[in-house]
Design brief:
113 residues; five-stranded mixed sheet; 5 strands
Length: 113
């Protein structure tokens, strides 16, 4: 049973998803399913971004490769997927966090107008 609804904002997530190999896409869908159905999502799947209130990253790992997809909650029940990227460094690139934060603000501005 679904606890939350997960949607993508604009086309950023879809564009990222279509660039990934099928095995990675399958893993991403499994994590989205966990976010939709689990009351408490494990922190190895969903982690808040320090310094930006309300912004989270989903964590996807396949072998030694790591991907991240940014998202946020709207009224605790709706999860909005933003941009994604393949992580190649220890720290999440600041430019990716800034892009996700900009998209989150854009979403709420559009919703409130």
């Amino acid at each position: 049973m679904k606890i939350r609804k997960v949607i993508a904002y604009k086309g950023y997530f879809e564009a990222f998803l279509l660039e990934q190999p099928i095995k990675v896409q399958d893993k991403i869908f499994k994590i989205i399913e966990a976010i939709e159905t689990l009351e408490r999502v494990p922190s190895n799947y969903l982690k808040s971004i320090i310094g930006i209130t309300g912004l989270y990253e989903t964590r996807i790992q396949l072998g030694s490769n790591i991907w991240r997809v940014f998202c946020f909650f709207d009224n605790d029940k709706l999860v909005i997927l933003l941009n994604g990227f393949q992580k190649k460094t220890q720290k999440t690139p600041k430019s990716e966090i800034e892009k996700a934060n900009k998209l989150m603000k854009e979403y709420f501005n559009e919703k409130n107008n």
